[in-house]
Amino acid sequence: MEFSDKFIESFLHPRNDLLVKMEQYAQMHRIPIMQLPAMEVLEQFLRIQRPKTLLEIGTAIGYSALRIAQALPDCRIVTIERDRERVQLAKQFIGESDAVHRITVIEGDALEVDVANIQSVFDAVFIDAAKGQNMRFFERFSPLVPAGGVIYIDNIYMHGLSDMPVEEVPRGKRSMIRKLKEFTEWIKNHPDYQTTFVPVGDGLLICLKR
């Protein structure tokens, strides 16, 4: 069963002026941010979970970090981005919000940054960066998540490419899709996680640590 865009959009909540400005900037400059229905689903899961600390891999312009901060007024967020220009944009946008003191933006490669010096435990991790690196991100940061913590991963469906045989995927994306497929098969059978796929936006994976 497919739901109409109009029906889905009727459940979206109004955003403040800053978030609308960020959405317009992202669209104008072709910067990918999380699709609105998926963003709201993620926020709702986080409201239920109520993490006190959250690590985000892939800041972009800071949109999702700000959305999460607004949904979780008691949560401290660390977010990592390797693109210098986007880091500056994120800091600028976040600086316009009242959540600026709860969000730490780190410039660097998430596979190299030592976040344990900033925060040793994260109740939640949100991975929204290079899709072919999901396995490495997961293995690097899952030890920082306690039992009962959750790792959320966006873009698992990759606009339908994840559901295609690798040989039918456009050649330039085959390596990334092959790695993404390997990761999803691996996490589905991981003994330490209960994993669920939510078919919203571009596909959201929710991994609950046992």
UniProtKB/TrEMBL annotation:
S-adenosyl-L-methionine binds at residues 34, 64, 81, 109-110, 128. Pfam families: Methyltransf_3. The keyword Transferase applies. One of its GO terms (biological process) is tRNA methylation. Mg(2+) binds at residues 128, 154-155. It catalyses: 5-hydroxyuridine(34) in tRNA + S-adenosyl-L-methionine = 5-methoxyuridine(34) in tRNA + S-adenosyl-L-homocysteine + H(+). Its EC number is 2.1.1.-. One of its GO terms (molecular function) is tRNA (uridine) methyltransferase activity. Homodimer. Belongs to the class I-like SAM-binding methyltransferase superfamily. Cation-dependent O-methyltransferase family. This is tRNA 5-hydroxyuridine methyltransferase. It comes from Ureibacillus terrenus.
